[in-house]
Every structure is written in structure tokens, then in C-alpha cells.
Amino acid sequence: MKALYPGTFDPLTNGHLDIIERAAHIFDEVIVLINHNPRKQCLFSVEERISMIQKSIALLPNANKIQVMAGKGLTVNIAESIGAKTMIRGIRAVTDYEYELATATANMKINPNIETFFLIARPEYTFLSSSTVKEIAMNDGDISEFVPAPILKQVEERLK
To answer: Catalytic annotation on 49?
Structure first.
């Protein structure tokens, strides 16, 4: 079964990478979707984010089951267009759950054939977001534990 993991990934964090790796153990194929979000101002271009994700997933044991793509529009429609029956969402805290539940419910109304699969963040990643990484890096903090090693230098150079 094919699953879609949508997000902005600006930048990819170790929390994102953990969700991708765990999803690849569950599903036959995982498509990481960088979806255009007009409400967010991104630091990295779509092409840069695709490259960073590809570099990061290359080290995973199931890397051959993971692809990266960019898209625009409703993720539930993108999922259907590529034959994915499931969308993956990571949950860090109650606030994530409330937002994701509302989104998943709306998606069910739009297309009841697409399911949402929630993966709970590991405890060490419950605080971690791309915004947190940006804030720490912009204030000269150490982000080496928060982003995958293959992209650390690239992220640091952009944010410092």
C-alpha cells in the first residue's frame, strides 16, 4: 500500500525523518510531498527541500521505498492522483492532534476513500518543529541534534 506524507519540511527535522522511516516500515511505498502552502514563507526553495530530503533518506534502511515529490493543491486530491490510499501525519502534542483531526475530518468529507494514519512523535521529538530549528539557529544555537547530518551544514549556512 502507498502512503503520502505531506508537509512543508522547511527544513526537514530529525522528527520528520523519524516519521518517514517508521512509515517506510509499515507501508510498501512512502511518498514525501512538499506541498505549496501560501500561508508559509519558506527559507528554502522547493528544489532545495527535495534535495535535502533525498540526501537525508538515502541513509535509511528502507530508502528504496521512499520517494520525494512536490505538489500544489489539496493533499487529499494529490493522494488520490498518485494512488495513495493513506496520508501520514505526525502528532507531537494535543495541539497537533486538534489541528490534524480537523484536517483529517475535512479530508474524509472530500474523499472518504483516503485514510489518515497518525504516527505519534517519539518523546525526544515532541518539541521539535522546523520553526524551532529556525529560531535556535538564527540565535546561534546548536541544531546538530535536530536536523539530519547530511543537511546540517546547508541549514546552518542559511540560518546563521
So the answer is: no
Q: Grade residue 36 by pLDDT with cuts at 50, 70 and 90.
A: confident
Is 36 annotated in the active site?
no
Q: Report angle CA 60, 64, 65 to the nearest 5 degrees.
A: 95
pLDDT of residue 143: 97
Active site residue 81: no
What is the Cα–Cα distance from 148 to 74, expressed in whole angstroms? 28
pTM for the predicted model, two decimal places: 0.95
* Residues sharing a CB contact under 8 Å with residue 100, sequence separation 6 or more, in sequence order: 89, 91, 116, 118
Structure confidence at residue 28 (pLDDT): 98
Residue 56 among the catalytic residues: no
Q: Residue 111: which residues within 8 A CB-CB, separation 6 or more?
A: 76, 77, 79, 80
User: What would the pLDDT profile of 40-65 be if each residue is shown by its tens digit?
Assistant: 889 999 999 999 999 999 989 999 99
